[in-house]
Structure formats: C-alpha cells, structure tokens
Amino acid sequence: MSSRTSRRTPTLPSWLPVDPYILALIGTVVLAALLPASGTAADAAAGAATGAVALLFFLYGARLSTAEALDGLKHWRLHLTVLACTFVAFPLLGLASHGLVPHVLTPQLQDGFLFLCLVPSTIQSSIAFTSMARGNVPAAICAGSFSSIAGILLTPLLAALVLGGSAGGFSTDSLVKIVLQLLVPFLAGQLLRRWVGGFVARHRKVLSYVDRGSILLVVYTAFSEGMVAGIWHQVTPVRLGALMAAEAVLLALMLSLSWYGAKRLGFGRADRIAIQFAGSKKSLAAGLPMASVLFGAHASLAVLPLMLFHQMQLMVCAVIAKRRARDPLPESAEVSQVPVTVG
Predict the structure, then answer these.
(1) CB count, 10 Å around CB of 128?
(2) CA distance 240 to 104
(3) Rounded Cα gap, residues 142 and 253, in angstroms
(4) What is the secondary structure of 172-238 as a DSSP string?
(5) pTM above threshold 0.70
(6) Which residues have a Cβ under 8 Å from the Cβ of 53 and sit 6 or more positions away?
(7) Calpha distance 148→187 (Å, rounded)
(8) pLDDT tens readout for residues 25-37
(9) At what angle do helices 184-202 and 204-229 cross, to 10 degrees?
(10) Which residues of 46-67 are buried (b: 16+ CB within 10 A; e: fewer)?
C-alpha cells in the first residue's frame, strides 16, 4: 500500500475500543422502542430469553474446568478480596447514592443504580483485560467464576435487604426461579463437562454468539415491557447525563480501591491486575435475568444503569489494560495468556 493511500485511510486511536456489540445493544433498545413485544409475542420473547440465559449458564459450567477451579481455591485471599469489592464495597457505595435523590437521580434510577452495585462480576471481560495487561489470568478465571456463582444467591438476597419493596418481585419463589435459571444449568454444565467440554472448547467462537444473543433477547424483553407500561417518560436527557456522571464516579472509585487496596494487602502486580479487573466490573449476563425476575414490568429502568455501566467499564478498562501491558515486567514474572475477546 502506498503512503498516499495510507494517508487517505482513516484510522481510529489504538486506545479506543470499538465494540459492535455496543451498537447491537443500542439497536435492540431502539427496536424495543419502535416495535415492543406485547401479548403473545411478549410471552414468546420472555420464554426465548429464559431459555437462552439457561443455555448461556450451561455453557459457563461446561467451559470451567473443575480441576482449574479447585486449584484456584489456593488463592483464597485474592478471591475474598474480589468478593469483598463486589459484594461489600460496591453495595456500600450504592447505598451512599441515596444522597443523590431527588436532585441528581430519580428514585427509580437510584434503585437501578443500587441494583447495579449488587450484581456479580464478569467472567469474559475480567479474563480478557487481565490477559491484555499481562496479569494473573488463572486467578481472573476463578475469581470471575466464583463471583458469578456466589451472585446467584447473594444478589437477590442483598436486593431484598437493601431495596426492600422496590424489588417488588422478590420472594422465595423469585429466588427459586433465579436458581433454576442460572445455578442449575451451570451445575449441569459442570456435570456434563466430561462429554461436552471438548465440543464447547472447539466451538468457542461460535458459541460466543449464545452469550451475546441471550443478553440481546433479555434487553429486548425488558425494554419492551417498559414501553408497554409507558415508563420511559420518567427519564429525561438531564437525568440520563446525571446517571452517567454518577456511574463514572462509581467506576473510578472501584478501579482505585481495587488497585491500591490490593497493593496495601501485599499482592503482587499480576494479582493486583486480576483483582482490579474482576473487582471493578459488573456482569450484564447475570444482572439482566435477575432484574427481570426481581423488578418485573419495571425491569427496563432497573437495567438501564447496568447497561450504561457495562459500556463504560469496557471502554475505560480497555484503556487501562493497554497501558498496563506496556509496564516493564520483572524478569522472573511468568504470566499465563489466553485469547482476548472482550464481552
């Protein structure tokens, strides 16, 4: 290619993560606004979303090596640190957001903001960014997986404790629904991993569409319910901007706390990277189906903060991971690497 041609070719900054999946999420919201599912179509969409999420967690179980998970238990201090970030520090900051009502956030948006703080950590993104930054990848795999499993029980219980009547769908029945939809398929994947694990590993790229497709289905279902219920008039552009500002502060606080807190606890560089990326992010895949069960027809407002935070964490963590990758490593450092796919 000639220099003249290359000058004509527009290039994006290397630090800017361009993820078509974000565009797909936005497109799904627009589709739900223009063509919301109602009646029989809504029931069909909800059923398809439930089945897709169950399949997603089955694949999570089939991917995670039981031996790898047991080996990861040796790093119990690291996993406790990540769990403390996810289910202690985040919820405390979420409770502090009550002070933003009503001048910054509406009560409904604050409920969604608080719910965001109760959701477990991610798996794929934690692994991807840890690998990109040359951190402790096996620890990130186990930390993200343990957080997701713990969140199946802890998130609805914490929601009942701190949200109370706001999470109107919470009950013993809703907890059972979440366990049946998320934990049971995960355990089934673990039990059948001996027979299906190889297939899942060979078709990892193709099966990644199940991950993303299930989330899109849940987003469409939740936002369709919101449109039918007529609740979107409650969100003005000013409130939306205030929500994004509050989430930017939340993300900055957790990135700082997880990084410098891990240093104070005596963790090395590779472990600090795993703690920062696993301890500062929230899972869209786990949070959306839980919100649908807990909030019912009001799930669209409840998941809006989580969707915005998901996009923000991907963009910010991509920048941090690429900068960490340029840090000099000690000669004795040995870092496990895995293929990087952000999701």
Answers:
(1) 24
(2) 10
(3) 24
(4) HHHHHHHIIIIIHHHHHHHHHHHHHHHHHHHTHHHHHHHHHHHHHHHHHHHHHHHHHHT-GGG--HH
(5) yes
(6) 181, 182, 214, 218, 285, 288, 289
(7) 12
(8) 788 888 888 888 8
(9) 140
(10) bebbbebbbbbbbbbbbbbbee
